[in-house]
């Protein structure tokens, strides 16, 4: 996504930019907050990458040239520009996707158990209010 939260995604109709509709997705942070230079360029890099010929609608292929390929190719283009080694699909999945999916699964399971057993989640009062 862009810094403002616009989600870029690729399917058989090409590249899309969406400000809504992704509220239930898992966000995987890729850029550390101290990488100020990259953060300043992020939106430009994402837009320039997304208009490339590789992401035209007719090039979409469900198994080999899809949204996952698009995301990984963008990440690898940023890594290359930084002089770093590219990641394989397996490496990206193991390092970034699986850990976040496990966290989400635990949260969803906990939430389901609490709501199924008539427990309620109530926010704690602010620390200032306790004094």
UniProtKB/TrEMBL annotation:
Ranges where the MKRN2 opposite strand protein-like C-terminal domain occurs: 4-114
Organism: Oceanites oceanicus
Pfam family, one: DUF4796_C
Source organism, top-level taxon: Eukaryota
Protein name (Swiss-Prot/TrEMBL): MKROS protein
């Amino acid at each position: 996504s862009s810094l403002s939260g616009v989600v870029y995604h690729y399917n058989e109709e090409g590249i899309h930019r969406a400000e809504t509709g992704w509220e239930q997705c898992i966000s995987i942070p890729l850029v550390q907050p101290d990488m100020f230079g990259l953060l300043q360029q992020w939106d430009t890099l994402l837009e320039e990458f997304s208009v490339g010929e590789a992401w035209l609608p007719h090039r979409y292929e469900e198994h080999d040239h899809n949204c996952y390929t698009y995301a990984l190719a963008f990440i690898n283009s940023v890594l290359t520009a930084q002089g770093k080694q590219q990641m394989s699909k397996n490496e990206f999945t193991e390092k970034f996707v699986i850990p976040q999916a496990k966290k989400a699964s635990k949260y969803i399971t906990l939430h389901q158990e609490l709501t199924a057993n008539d427990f309620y989640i109530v926010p704690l009062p602010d620390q200032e209010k306790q004094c």
